[in-house]
Automatic annotation (TrEMBL):
Annotated keywords: Carboxypeptidase, Hydrolase, Protease
Species name: Myripristis murdjan (pinecone soldierfish)
Name of this chain's protein: Peptidase M20 domain-containing protein 2
Segments forming domain Peptidase M20 dimerisation: 188-273
UniProt-listed GO biological process terms: proteolysis; regulation of protein metabolic process
Length: 427
């Protein structure tokens, strides 16, 4: 074994040992987040718990609490690993927001645990070595509001990802996969303003905002038949009126519009907008269409990082899914997509010991179950090992960066040329 391979194996082993050693406190960390679910932008206890973890329970971290957002944080360590070479900055992202009514049904408590564990592992490995070809900075970014709003996008607008070389996070799922297709998404709130009146005595005096909401819902349901099979339109009526004998004067709907790529979003948005406005016209209501401040985009893939992660995962016993349907069908969306256009990174998915589906009560149970711990820590080890791969081999890091630049240029060109449809023959 050549010297570098021996060192790499030793460091990977060291990272894993450190993660195992911290297993109990990492479990407590994710349990505390899981047992007190908090919604997007309001993850105060989770924020404080993670800040305390890095500033009190662990040594050597510089912690910026309330970093860029009220419930975001940053913990940094380094540079370490020797006194030679450029500083390479590796970041692990923690999410920790929950869903209304069903708690941690997407397992973001485990995302926080993976991020913290991988950072501990990488720091320990780097600390032990003075022979690295680069100096290493380890960053943990606490990124709120993935389920609503897109905290990472807010943080990007504030330059929170500036200066990072590679970013890693991992998301709970039903299987291990280095990548699953996440779709682009833009959310919209539609408000109809009508006029109240006695619904039995003089209904002709009213303007029915609920009728507008129902027509809007039906227009979109009809539109669904004419859009691409992998586009998604789904929504709820948030306000539907207050009493049957009052003609509803105000209604409100919330819709999520999704397409596989960011370039297709404007098309679905303009089609949906016609549905919103025509419902207003038919009923005589006024309509307000408010698109969310942040648009989530698809993930820019990095094959080099994905391959390294898969190899490390396999070495740790992961069995990656080969189910073509899972590997090709779009799933949800993530604000990591936006990050992936700014910094090279990966967002693999990991099995948590249960077949339950995300966004169900069963998944909430699974995310808090002790059984998830083995898989969560194994994922953290695979991420730390992947970071070590690129840190010990500057040629690999360069390949990761070149691939990122090329993929971004290609996506930008497609967008500029108006080639929105990735499934078209021209692609
Ligand atoms: N509408 C705000 C964003 C919703 C993001 C959510 N994310 C997930 O389910 C996690 C999968 N990465 C979604 O897709 O609905």
């Amino acid at each position: 074994m050549c010297e570098r391979a021996g060192l790499l194996a030793e460091l990977k082993h060291g990272a894993g040992c450190r993660i195992d050693e911290a297993a109990e406190k990492l479990h407590r960390l994710s349990q505390d987040i899981w047992s007190c679910p908090e919604l997007a932008y309001d993850e105060r206890k989770a924020h404080d718990r993670l800040v305390a973890f890095f500033s009190q329970e662990e040594e050597g971290w510089k912690v910026d609490s309330h970093f860029k957002l009220d419930t975001a944080f940053r913990a940094t360590w380094g540079p370490g690993g020797g006194d030679e070479g450029d500083v390479v900055s590796v970041a692990f992202l923690c999410e920790y927001d929950a869903l209304p009514g069903i708690g941690h049904a997407c397992g973001h408590n485990l995302i926080a645990e993976v991020g913290a564990a991988a950072a501990l592992g990488l720091k320990a490995a780097v600390e032990k070595s003075s022979k690295l070809p680069v100096r290493v900075q380890v960053t943990v970014l606490g990124t709120p509001a993935e389920e609503d709003g897109g905290g990472k996008i807010d943080m990007m607008k504030e330059d929170a990802f500036k200066g990072l070389d590679v970013v890693f996070m991992a998301h709970p799922s039903q299987e291990d996969a280095p990548y699953l297709p996440c779709v682009a998404e833009h959310d919209v709130t539609v408000k109809y303003h009508g006029k109240a009146s006695h619904a039995s005595a003089y209904p002709w005096e009213g303007i029915n905002a609920l009728d507008a909401a129902v027509l809007c819902y039906n227009n979109l349901s009809v539109l669904r038949q004419q859009i691409k099979p992998d586009w998604r339109i789904h929504g709820i009526i948030k306000h539907g009126g207050v009493k049957p004998n009052i003609i509803p004067a105000y209604t409100e709907l919330e819709y999520y519009l999704r397409t596989p790529s960011r370039g297709e979003l404007p098309v679905i948005k303009s089609k949906a907008e016609m549905c919103f406005r025509s419902a207003a016209m038919a009923t005589g209501c006024e309509v307000e269409v408010e698109f969310a401040k942040n648009m989530f985009v698809n993930i820019l893939r990095n094959a080099t990082l994905e391959e390294l992660y898969e190899k490390n995962g396999k070495d740790l016993g992961m069995e990656f899914t080969t189910d073509e349907e899972v590997l090709t069908n779009g799933s949800g969306s993530t604000d990591f997509g936006n990050v992936s256009f700014a910094v090279p990174g990966i967002h693999p998915y990991f099995y948590i010991g249960s077949d339950a589906l995300n966004h169900t009560e069963e998944y909430t149970v699974a995310a808090g179950d002790e059984k998830a711990q083995f898989y969560t820590l194994r994922t953290a080890k695979a991420l730390a090992m992947t970071a070590l791969d690129v840190l010990l081999r500057p040629d690999l890091l360069q390949r990761v960066k070149d691939e990122f630049t090329e993929a971004k240029l290609k996506e930008d060109r497609l967008l500029k040329d108006g080639q929105t449809d990735r499934t078209s023959k021209n692609k």
